[in-house]
Design goal:
By secondary structure, this protein is of the alpha+beta class. The protein is built from three helices and four strands.
């Protein structure tokens, strides 16, 4: 049996080229992925939906109910039936008081937060699954009203009035359509 060294060398060159291409693409991904690792909508610390909460957030691979449209939209194609899901997670009231800020009077803040609420529907339409989701991802209200008087700065009478109300909301919503590419 005669071995054709030119064919073997050609295959080795092709494999070497593929390995170099793989290393180049993987290396570029590693170099540029640092800026993409976090975002305002990174769900790693927030549990959206009842089933995902029950699984401790380990839900991306399953995602076959309405909250799956948030974690992995293609996963709703595996939903067995039509579903409606509603969940509310938490409310937080935070009161901060810092003593002796201005003229030996305290500075206070009252912050109310509501994290996340979820409503979702999965409906079968022919061979497709359609999901509609609405998430109140972040809702925070900061209400502050402070009045400082009866003191002086460089022998001049002074008063400070701090009055603001800040509301910060993030509402996410969307439509997901998923279907199998083939019957197999």
């Amino acid at each position: 049996m005669k071995i054709n060294k030119s064919k073997i060398n050609g295959k080795i060159k092709n494999i070497t080229g593929l390995i170099i291409l793989f290393i180049f693409l993987t290396g570029a991904n590693i170099l540029f992925a640092g800026g993409l690792s976090t975002s305002d909508f990174n769900y790693i610390n927030d549990l959206i939906g009842g089933r995902a909460t029950g699984l401790g957030g380990a839900y991306t691979a399953i995602s076959d109910d309405p909250s799956g449209a948030y974690y992995n939209p293609a996963g709703i194609v595996f939903a067995f039936d039509n579903q409606i899901s509603l969940s509310v997670n938490s409310y937080k009231n935070k009161y901060i008081e810092i003593s002796d800020v201005i003229a030996e009077k305290p500075y206070t803040q009252n912050i109310e937060s509501f994290y996340p609420s979820f409503f979702g529907v999965v409906q079968t339409l022919g061979k497709l699954k359609v999901g509609i989701t609405i998430i109140n991802y972040h809702n925070e209200i900061l209400d502050q009203d402070e009045y400082f008087s009866g003191f002086s700065i460089d022998s001049y009478p002074a008063t400070f009035n701090i009055n603001y109300n800040i509301t910060d909301n993030t509402l996410l919503g969307g439509i997901t359509i998923a279907g199998f590419a083939t019957d197999s």
